[in-house]
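ok, trying the design again with the full structure, not the truncated one.
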């Protein structure tokens, strides 16, 4: 056995197949190891054992620490936490240091690795005692196959479980560390980003180049289009200049002609105005006279209005008197009814007295009969003297025998009578109380009925009051507004009268027109298809065209428009039957109409079509002009048209002209106003009917007064109802209080009554017992005597006789009471005075009739005053009508004067229209001339001018246009049709050029932009070539790094993938399953495997394929160990550039309790596998198919595992020094040969 502190056993120099192994550790103050300690030597398969908490894992941490693993993986936040410290005082001590040295044996040579924690908390690295940097230290370890970053030589606690639970991406990351391809990741990512940027840049430059090329081609086409557009613009400008110059030339010629005609018309107009002025003076004088008559008529109307106002003031008084009379009549009627009622009551009173007297006589007779009846019954039983003596003796004897009992009975009878009397009094009191309670209930019901009636009537009266107030307010507002509305309507009626006077609506209508109008009205009523006369269906747009349209229509002006030909025939048949004048009918459906010549709408000047479509048949394509010259030009030059002037001159296509002043035609033209006159008359009639509907404001005032009186009466009634309601509520409260008191009294008396009834019942029982005893004794005594006198029982006989006497007495008492009651009622009726109320009511009736007479006298006086006012109003009305007749006479004279001056006015109007028309034409020409000049300035058209204006004879300062540049054909005098042809030719040529220009859609900037784009295209082409070159260079670098990374990754993956199945088979092989299980790795992406996941699949023997998560804990551990052993065998060794990559496993493998989750069978399999890879003897026995060997240092607590090791390192806790200590035990000496 080796000595303590690890200094025992032979120093074996066998390697694990990798050329070197860990020989020993030299630990100083590291974690739980205090002071300097040497641990080892370590054999090819060494097991570290010891109890929990002894420091086994700290030994593994020491090996990891010296091999460069970071403190975070060694269960320490910082390096100082790895220095031994017994307590907090040791932790705070300064200058603390710790170190771990590893002796690595390579054949006969040893290599010393030392890592020290300095006092400052940093790390110091040494190789063979020489201080080196971390990079040199790491590189030396890497050269020996120890990959610190990948930690391919360490398996800590929990690493097996983490390997088993790694997802595909995490497995890929682990394999990248092992293969070394992760060292190319940063360069790969940078080059990938650069490649993407270069491709994007190249694409952008290419897109820019493509855009510029397309834009250059587009600009080339736009350049050609712009050149064409400029050429067309120039042609259009020259054409417009020629057109405007020709238009100005024709306008100047027309202005000269119109000015000459205008001077002649103005001279004629001045002469006619002088003639018209004299007739106006006479007309003004007559109008003044008429105005005086109208003023007097207005004064009469004002006086009538005042009298009407006085009459209206009398109306409320009359209304009030009428209402008072009505009220008194109602009172008198009520008083008469009351008198009749009182008389009926008196008659009933007399009849009642007679009835009472008769009843009193009947009762007296009945009492006398009862007395006689009593005397007859008193002597029915006759006894002899001896029998009578015997009867008295026996009676005395019976009395003596029953004296005592009779005394007792008498006492009890007295008490019983007293109780009966008390009970009777109590019942009478209670009955009185109940009667009063019933009376109170009856009174309450009556009061509630009255109260409910009041409560029901109050809302009705309130609603009625609200309604009356609203009605009162409405009538007040209506009375206020009706006055203003009445005045407004009267003013509008006056305005309509003035308009009718202006239109001469009051002139006498001819008999023919009246009959014609009546006939057309009858036709419209009888036949639905009749629309009316032409004058009713249409009218000229302006009054100045009335005469012209009348002339244009001719005979069709009075024609009747019907729907179809059948309707026209029916109308003609009706006219013949009624012997009415003939009419012309225009059927709309069958009439043939010439189409409108649309160019007539655009002739210019004042010429325009008479109608559009409505009356096309009547007027055809007739034109209306203001001037005769224009009409002549349109009718007789070029295309001939039918033309009529506004003053009634008709020019036909054949060359005839009809005109002159015609009173008949002007009268017919006035028919256009007939429809307006009719509408004004209808409007006047409507307004007058509305005025009559408004009624007199006095009537509204009377209604308002009546409603006010009703409101006052309702308010008083509501007040009385509210007072009565309060009184009823007070009475109900008092009755309710009295009822409560009665109920309390009845409740108090009820127990006493019950007690008396019980007492009475007891005493009656006692009395009956005593009576029974007495009767038995008496019957015994009387038995023999009763037999002797022939009576069964003399006692019962006496009692019966007594009862009969008592009944007779009670009957007498009842009749006596009835007689007393009748006497009292008779006395009461005799004392009643029934005549006094009748006398009082008659006196009241007389006073009311006297008051009624006074009111009727006042009413008759007020009516006489009102009649006097009405008579005065009638006189004023007659006077006003007299003044109106005089005014009408003046109106007739004024109309005659107007008719006399009609011809002068017509001539004046005609000349005035001609002057205004020519002035309008002149203004239009000047305006047109100015518009053309403005158009030229706006469109920048330069018109040719004469250099020396004096040559033309013009004194104007404005430039004189040079018309010599026009073609000779444009300078000739031409008719309007020729002008229209030239105008149309100009418009056609202009439109053609404009259409060509519009189709060009030029970009004038394209001329300059084209050259700039050519230069820009050259620059972008050079830029694109540079970007393509840069992209190719970066792409080559990226592909090279990608290929290198792919080769490194796939070499490691292929090696692990090939070895993992063999290792898994060795770990799962058994006697029952000699082939073992199956395990393999698969790539998710074979093109770029390092960017995607690796799928690890393991299938234990006799089990189907499952995911790793569905395996048991032991199966997961075995699969994870197989993967760990396969990964451990990989280490990338860079060879010469011309040689392929090579692999070499780590020289040692350190495992921390990897058998924790395994059962004994799997522990033995894993231990056997490790032994086969670690021990030379076993390896020689198994042959070379086991793969590369390695040194194994395993921490284990299972004896079935560590009994297969070559040596044991025991870790224990030294309690004296409070630190961990070790012992090494060589097991090779005890192995069987």
């Amino acid at each position: 056995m080796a000595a303590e502190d690890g200094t025992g056993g032979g120093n074996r120099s066998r390697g694990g197949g990798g050329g070197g192994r860990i020989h020993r550790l030299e630990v100083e103050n590291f974690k739980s190891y205090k002071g300097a300690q040497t641990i080892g030597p370590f054999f090819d398969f060494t097991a570290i054992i010891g109890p929990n908490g002894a420091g086994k894992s700290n030994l593994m941490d020491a090996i990891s620490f010296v091999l460069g693993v970071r403190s975070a993986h060694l269960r320490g936040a910082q390096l100082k936490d790895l220095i031994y410290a017994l307590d907090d005082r040791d932790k705070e001590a300064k200058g603390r240091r710790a170190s771990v040295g590893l002796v690595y044996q390579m054949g006969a040579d040893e290599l010393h690795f030392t890592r020290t924690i300095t006092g400052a908390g940093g790390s110091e690295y040494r190789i063979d005692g020489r201080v080196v940097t971390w990079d040199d230290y790491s590189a030396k370890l890497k050269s020996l196959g120890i990959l610190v970053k990948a930690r391919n030589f360490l398996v800590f606690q929990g690493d097996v479980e983490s390997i088993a639970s790694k997802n595909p991406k995490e497995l890929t990351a682990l394999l990248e560390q092992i293969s070394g391809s992760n060292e190319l990741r940063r360069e790969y990512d940078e080059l990938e980003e650069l490649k993407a940027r270069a491709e994007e840049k190249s694409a952008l430059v290419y897109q820019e180049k493509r855009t510029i090329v397309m834009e250059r081609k587009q600009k080339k086409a736009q350049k050609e289009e712009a050149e064409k557009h400029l050429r067309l613009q120039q042609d259009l400008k020259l054409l417009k200049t020629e057109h405007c110059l020709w238009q100005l030339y024709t306008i100047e010629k027309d202005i000269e002609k119109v000015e000459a005609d205008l001077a002649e018309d103005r001279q004629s107009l001045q002469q006619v105005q002088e003639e018209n002025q004299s007739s106006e003076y006479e007309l003004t004088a007559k109008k003044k006279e008429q105005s005086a008559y109208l003023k007097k008529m207005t004064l009469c109307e004002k006086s009538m209005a005042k009298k009407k106002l006085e009459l209206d003031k009398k109306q409320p008084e009359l209304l009030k008197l009428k209402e008072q009379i009505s009220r008194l009549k109602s009172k008198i009627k009520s008083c008469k009814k009351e008198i009749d009622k009182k008389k009926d009551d008196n008659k009933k009173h007399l009849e009642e007295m007679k009835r009472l007297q008769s009843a009193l006589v009947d009762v007296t007779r009945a009492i006398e009969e009862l007395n006689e009846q009593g005397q007859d019954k008193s002597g029915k039983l006759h006894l002899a003297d001896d029998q009578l003596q015997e009867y008295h003796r026996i009676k005395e004897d019976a009395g003596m025998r029953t004296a005592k009992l009779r005394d007792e009975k008498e006492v009890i009878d007295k008490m019983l009578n007293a109780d009966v009397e008390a009970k009777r009094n109590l019942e009478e009191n209670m009955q009185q109380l109940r009667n009063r309670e019933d009376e109170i209930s009856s009174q309450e019901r009556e009061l509630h009925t009255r109260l409910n009636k009041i409560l029901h009537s109050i809302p009705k009266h309130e609603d009625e009051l609200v309604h009356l107030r609203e009605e009162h307010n409405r009538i007040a507002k209506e009375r206020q507004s009706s006055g203003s509305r009445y005045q407004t309507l009267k003013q509008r009626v006056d305005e309509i009268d003035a308009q009718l006077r202006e239109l001469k609506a009051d002139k006498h209508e001819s008999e023919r027109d009246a009959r014609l109008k009546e006939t057309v009205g009858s036709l419209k009523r009888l036949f639905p298809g009749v629309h009316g006369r032409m004058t009713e269906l249409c009218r000229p747009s302006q009054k100045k065209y009335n005469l012209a349209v009348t002339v244009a229509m001719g005979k069709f002006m009075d024609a009747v428009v019907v729907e179809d030909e059948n309707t026209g025939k029916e109308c003609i048949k009706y006219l013949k039957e009624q012997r009415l004048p003939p009419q012309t009918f225009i059927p709309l459906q069958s009439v043939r109409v010439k189409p409108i010549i649309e160019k007539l709408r655009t002739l210019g000047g004042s010429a325009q079509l008479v109608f559009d479509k409505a009356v096309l048949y009547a007027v055809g394509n007739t034109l209306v002009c203001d001037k005769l010259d224009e009409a002549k030009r349109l009718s007789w030059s070029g295309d001939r048209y039918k033309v009529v002037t506004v003053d009634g001159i008709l020019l036909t296509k054949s060359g005839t002209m009809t005109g002159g002043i015609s009173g008949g035609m002007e009268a017919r033209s006035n028919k256009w106003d007939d429809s307006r006159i009719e509408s004004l008359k209808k409007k006047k009639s409507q307004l007058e009917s509305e005025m009559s509907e408004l009624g007199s404001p006095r009537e509204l005032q009377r209604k308002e007064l009546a409603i006010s009186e009703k409101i006052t009466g309702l308010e008083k009634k509501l007040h009385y109802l509210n007072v009565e309601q309060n009184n009823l509520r007070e009475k109900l409260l008092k009755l309710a209080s009295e009822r409560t008191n009665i109920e309390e009294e009845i409740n108090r008396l009820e127990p006493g009554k019950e007690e008396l009834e019980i007492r009475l019942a007891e005493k009656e029982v006692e009395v009956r017992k005593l009576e029974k005893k007495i009767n038995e004794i008496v019957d015994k005594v009387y038995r023999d005597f009763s037999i002797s006198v022939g009576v069964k029982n003399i006692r019962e006989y006496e009692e019966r006789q007594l009862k009969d006497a008592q009944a007779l007495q009670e009957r007498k008492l009842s009749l006596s009471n009835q007689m007393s009651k009748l006497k009292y009622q008779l006395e009461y009726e005799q004392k009643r005075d029934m005549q006094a109320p009748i006398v009082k009511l008659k006196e009241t009736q007389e006073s009311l009739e006297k008051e009624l007479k006074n009111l009727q006298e006042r009413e008759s006086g007020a009516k006489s005053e009102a009649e006097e006012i009405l008579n005065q109003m009638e006189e004023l009305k007659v006077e006003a009508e007299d003044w109106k007749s005089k005014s009408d006479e003046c109106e007739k004279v004024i109309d005659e004067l107007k008719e006399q001056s009609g011809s002068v006015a017509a001539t004046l109007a005609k000349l005035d229209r001609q002057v205004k028309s020519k002035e309008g034409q002149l203004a239009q020409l000047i305006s047109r001339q100015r518009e053309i000049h403005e158009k030229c300035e706006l469109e920048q058209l330069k018109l040719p001018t004469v250099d020396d204006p004096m040559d033309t004879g013009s004194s104007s300062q404005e430039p004189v246009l040079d018309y010599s540049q026009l073609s000779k054909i444009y300078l000739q005098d031409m008719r309007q049709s020729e002008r229209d042809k030239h105008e149309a030719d100009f418009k056609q040529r202009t439109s053609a050029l404009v259409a060509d220009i519009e189709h060009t859609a030029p970009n004038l900037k394209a001329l300059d932009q084209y050259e700039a784009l050519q230069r820009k295209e050259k620059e972008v082409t050079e830029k694109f070539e540079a970007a393509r070159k840069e992209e190719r260079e970066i792409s080559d670098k990226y592909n090279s790094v990608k290929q290198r990374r792919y080769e490194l990754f796939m070499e490691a993956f292929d090696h692990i993938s090939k070895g993992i199945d063999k290792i898994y088979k060795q770990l799962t092989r058994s006697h029952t399953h000699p082939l073992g299980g199956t395990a393999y790795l698969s790539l998710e992406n074979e093109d770029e495997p390092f960017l995607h996941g690796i799928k690890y699949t393991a299938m234990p023997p006799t089990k189907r394929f499952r995911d790793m998560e569905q395996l048991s804990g032991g199966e997961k551990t075995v699969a994870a160990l197989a993967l760990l052993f396969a990964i451990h065998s990989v280490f990338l060794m860079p060879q010469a550039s011309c040689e392929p990559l090579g692999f070499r496993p780590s020289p040692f493998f350190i495992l921390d309790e990897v058998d924790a989750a395994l059962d004994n069978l799997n522990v033995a399999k894993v231990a056997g596998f490790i032994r086969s890879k670690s021990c030379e003897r076993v390896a020689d026995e198994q042959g070379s198919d086991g793969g590369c060997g390695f040194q194994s240092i395993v921490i284990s607590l299972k004896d079935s595992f560590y009994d297969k090791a070559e040596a044991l390192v025991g870790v224990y806790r030294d309690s004296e020094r409070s630190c961990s200590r070790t012992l090494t035990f060589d097991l090779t000496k005890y192995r069987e040969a």
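Keeping the full-length input from now on. The chain has 27 helices and 24 strands.
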